[in-house]
Design brief:
It comes from Xanthobacter dioxanivorans. The chain is about 70% helix and about 0% strand. The radius of gyration is 17 Å and the shape is globular.
Length: about 180
C-alpha cells in the first residue's frame, strides 16, 4: 500500500484532495526525514488504519527505524498531550493550568532523532488535534531552532492534506481492505 493506492481510492468528488495528495512527496522545503516523518505521524493521527498503513509504507524506504519510531512516538505522545493541554486551556477554571500534569513525556526530550524534526511532527499532529497551547509551544521551539515560518506552514499544510484524505475516504464509505478484495 502506498500513496498511489490512496490516490486510486479517492472518489471523484474529492478531486482536489487527490491532487493535493499527489504533490506531497514533491515538497522540497523539508528534509526527507522531516517530510516522511510527517506522513507517518499525521497518517496515524487520522485514526484511519488504511491511511496510516499506506503512508507508513510510503515512508519506510526514507526513514531509519529510529526515525519511524520517533514519528510514531510524536503521534502517540501528542494524542495524550493535546487532550490534556487543550482541556487546561479551554476550561473556564484556570486552576487546572497550575496543577502538575503528571504525564510521562520523556520522549519529547529524547526522541531519538533531531529534536527539530520531532517538534515539527508534534506541531503538525497538534494542529490536527486542535490544541492551541501545544501549537504555540512547538512553534516557539521550532522558531528558536531556526526552522523557518514557511517550513512550519508546509508541515501544517501536509497535515491538512492527510486529514482530508481520511475524510474523503470515509465520506465515500471506502475501506482499502474492502476495495482491494
Amino acid at each position: 500500500m502506498s500513496i498511489e493506492t490512496l490516490k486510486d481510492q479517492i472518489p471523484a468528488f474529492a478531486k482536489d484532495v487527490k491532487l493535493n495528495l499527489s504533490a506531497l512527496t514533491r515538497e522540497d522545503s523539508l528534509t526527507p526525514q522531516q517530510l516522511y516523518g510527517l506522513l507517518v505521524a499525521c497518517g496515524i493521527t487520522t485514526r484511519n488504519p488504511d491511511v496510516a498503513r499506506a503512508l507508513e509504507a510510503e515512508a519506510a524506504a526514507h526513514l531509519t527505524p529510529a526515525a519511524m519510531d520517533a514519528a510514531k512516538a510524536a503521534a502517540s505522545i501528542m494524542a495524550m498531550n493535546n487532550v490534556y493541554y487543550r482541556f487546561t486551556h479551554l476550561a473556564s477554571n484556570k486552576a487546572y493550568e497550575t496543577l502538575p500534569a503528571k504525564l510521562r513525556m520523556s520522549v519529547i526530550g529524547n526522541p531519538g532523532v533531531d529534536k527539530a524534526d520531532f517538534e515539527l511532527w508534534s506541531l503538525a499532529v497538534s494542529a490536527m488535534n486542535g490544541c492551541g497551547r501545544c501549537i504555540d509551544s512547538h512553534e516557539k521551539v521550532l522558531r528558536e531552532a531556526g526552522i523557518r515560518e514557511d517550513q512550519i506552514q508546509v508541515a501544517v499544510r501536509i497535515a491538512a492534506i492527510i486529514a482530508s484524505v481520511a475524510v474523503a475516504l470515509e465520506a465515500a464509505g471506502q475501506s482499502l481492505a474492502v476495495a482491494a478484495e
